[in-house]
Specification:
GO terms for molecular function: DNA binding. It holds the Pfam family HTH_17. It comes from Calidifontibacillus erzurumensis. This is Excisionase family DNA-binding protein. By secondary structure, this protein is α+β, with helices and mostly antiparallel strands. The chain has one domain: Arc Repressor Mutant, subunit A (Orthogonal Bundle), CATH 1.10.10. Helices cover about 45% and strands about 10% of the residues. The chain contains 3 helices and 3 strands. Strands 1-3-2 form a 3-stranded antiparallel beta sheet.
Length: about 80
């Protein structure tokens, strides 16, 4: 499925001008049909999969209890 620059910007939560600059820098693959750039949505699947993995890893790290510090001395 192909998206316009506007739709891609909404999908990635980025400004349209930034998506346009990424296209011109060839960091996003796009096809120019004579009127507008069309971007294949499938090229972002890996990006979103990696984001989900990172979120899951961060959740696991944040739910882990903080270990007691062995260097703390009891001052009693």
């Amino acid at each position: 499925m192909y998206l316009t620059v506007k739709e891609t910007a909404e999908l990635l939560s980025m400004p349209e001008s930034y998506v346009q600059s990424l296209i011109l820098q060839k960091r996003i693959r796009a096809i120019y049909d004579g009127e507008q750039y069309l971007i294949n949505k499938e090229q972002f699947n890996t990006h979103f999969e990696q984001l989900e993995k990172i979120k899951k890893l961060l959740d696991e790290m944040n739910s882990e209890p903080i270990p007691d510090d062995i260097d703390v001395k009891d001052e009693d």
